[in-house]
Design a protein that fits this description.
2 copies of one chain form a homodimer. In chain A, strand 3, helix 4 and strand 4 form a beta-alpha-beta unit. Chain A contains 10 helices and 11 strands. The longest helix of chain A has 18 residues. Chain A starts with a helix and ends in an 18-residue tail after the last strand. In chain A, about 35% of the residues lie in helices and about 20% in strands. A 6-stranded mixed β-sheet of chain A has the order 7-9-6-10-8-11, sandwiched between helices. A 5-stranded mixed β-sheet of chain A has the order 1-2-5-3-4. Chains A and B meet through helix 1, helix 2, strand 1, strand 2 and strand 3 of A and helix 1, helix 2, strand 1, strand 2 and strand 3 of B.
Chain lengths: ~325, ~325
């Protein structure tokens, strides 16, 4: 049954946008099911969390900046990051759906699986199986699964008075991409050797933050309940804070003096925009009481406070110095074609 | 890192074929992991089975023969069928990865989710979440999950002396496709009203065989162990028997007088080829002792014996009347582009 051309013209995915698409699709699932990055599956006396991500050639990866091994690593890491940001302490593994044109070289496929396997060896879990088929465009569909620890992190658990904290610096992945593409004029921006290497590593080999989650579980003050909100910054730091606010019905304030940038970041190099909207940083972004946040920050370098949840009413994300709303200009886009 | 053109020329997926591709990929997973349609995940004291399938526009579905609702239903049914054929008695649900060009009409996406939801309402389980992204071609990646009953069906458990049995007739889905495409000349082939409707229904709304599995569990003779081999006939009946033989290291004999065709199938209408290689029938294909097979067959119409496992050495699939090897001519192809 082909749809009439008029219907195709009036309301296509381009017009709807991602948020509206998710809103419309949510009627097909139990309430709140689409509100987090992962879904819970009850396995006997155990809770498993499950997550699916798609990576499409030309949208999420490109042969010019990404080796097949890195495509595989990033695909696994992106999924495992969603699990870590939802409370998974022990990954079980993942399934792989691979679409590729018939002319795709075997070495590319092999490289992708090498990258997937390397990420699983590093972080735990097995390749559980999957499916392969032909198509016009290379595409990976990864579904990862893991055992949830004592705290399931939801987006909708932020409360006024919470600190907003992150597990590491932001903007590195975007800087790495820019360096790989030759977009940064190194005569005008002094990117030191350490920052250069860190940025490219963060772009090519991002790490899911299971260690940061385990520390979080271990350092909870005994008198506090198991209540914290969390997500990862795969779609950009600002977006993750907006998501926490939107889901929790809260507002947030970011401190412009504590932007979580990597050490040595050049003064004039897209500080704010890449830190807030660079995307694909895969750090934990948490909202929790200061008494819990402080010991967690103290346990490892890179962790820091970036702001706070101000009120239990959603009025968006503002700067703490009165500059007004934090801009979504140049926001990281997932839905494009 | 772009691959050198020479590497791309020498060994591409088209040359390898599906079996060789799976063989090569199996080194990335635990032994035997790729031998079944599903993988096991331990959830506390419970075993969950998981399965991923891809459906690509132009390969697995087309607007000319398949409404968006049917695309969704078939995607869910194909995955649930793999679960049923592996021993899942209770589906948990599925995740959906949807790739679609930006010009895709919302009504198509909505229709797909309506079909997915309808199949889940009919057979159990929930929509667990997923991901949406842009791409050149419409594509669905479905990962389904369910609770395994007391018998996990593997492909590698067939033994000489077993009967080969099926849960229903074969070739119907292929006939339905031919009728929808107008490929059957109804002046030369008498397709009665009932067969016509059944064929189109089987093509558009195939059913995973959870009821047949539940009957199988209920009718096991007490003195037999929990040992049976199984798969579904999604890639064609012959292919499923070949898979059982290959995995079990057995040979099989099919009885040409008991081809599992639907009642009223016209004498001259591709009887053998569509029954054996039509594909997408989604029936259970089981290998088990006759004492267990007989009560199962007796419990519902459509179930029947199609042949037997002859020896514990893999010499392929033969006709029982001495005609020799059962031909794979016109075999159902999954990997194409």
């Amino acid at each position: 049954m082909a749809l009439p051309e008029t219907a195709a013209m009036t309301e296509c995915l381009r017009d709807l946008g991602e948020a509206e698409l998710i809103r419309r699709l949510s009627r097909f699932a139990p309430p709140g099911q689409f509100d987090d990055d992962t879904a819970a599956v009850q396995g006997g006396n155990d809770t498993l969390l499950i997550n699916t991500d798609l990576l499409v050639e030309g949208v999420h990866f490109s042969d010019t900046t990404t080796s097949p091994q890195d495509v595989g690593w990033r695909a696994a890491a992106a999924n495992l990051s969603d699990l870590a940001a939802s409370g998974v302490t022990e990954p079980v593994g993942l399934t792989v759906g691979l679409v590729a044109p018939a002319h795709t070289p075997w070495r590319w496929v092999e490289g992708v699986y090498e990258g997937l396997s390397a990420a699983l060896r590093r972080h735990g879990g097995f390749l559980l199986g999957g499916d392969c088929t032909g198509g016009q465009q290379r595409m990976l569909a990864i579904t990862a699964l893991g055992h949830c620890g004592p705290l399931r992190l939801h987006r909708n658990q932020a409360q006024a008075g919470d600190w907003l904290v992150v597990s590491g610096p932001h903007g590195l992945s975007r800087l790495g991409l820019a360096l790989l593409r030759g977009e940064v004029d190194l005569r005008h921006h002094s990117v030191d050797r350490h920052l250069h290497a860190a940025a490219i590593l963060q772009h090519q080999r991002p790490q899911p933050r299971f260690a940061a989650l385990r520390d979080l579980l271990a350092c909870k003050p005994l008198d506090l309940p198991w209540r914290a909100a969390g997500t990862d910054s795969s779609d950009g730091l600002l977006r993750s804070v907006q998501d926490l606010c939107h889901s929790s019905g809260c507002s947030a304030e970011l401190d412009p003096t504590t932007l979580p940038l990597a050490p040595g970041w050049p003064q004039e190099l897209n500080r704010e925009s890449w830190c807030l909207n660079g995307g694909e940083d895969f750090e934990l972004v948490l909202s929790l009481p200061p008494e819990w946040a402080k010991p967690w920050i103290a346990q490892a370098p890179g962790r820091q406070r970036i702001g706070r949840i101000t009120t239990n009413a959603n009025a968006g994300v503002h700067w703490s110095d009165g500059r007004g709303s934090v801009s979504a200009g140049g926001e990281f886009q997932h839905f494009q074609a």
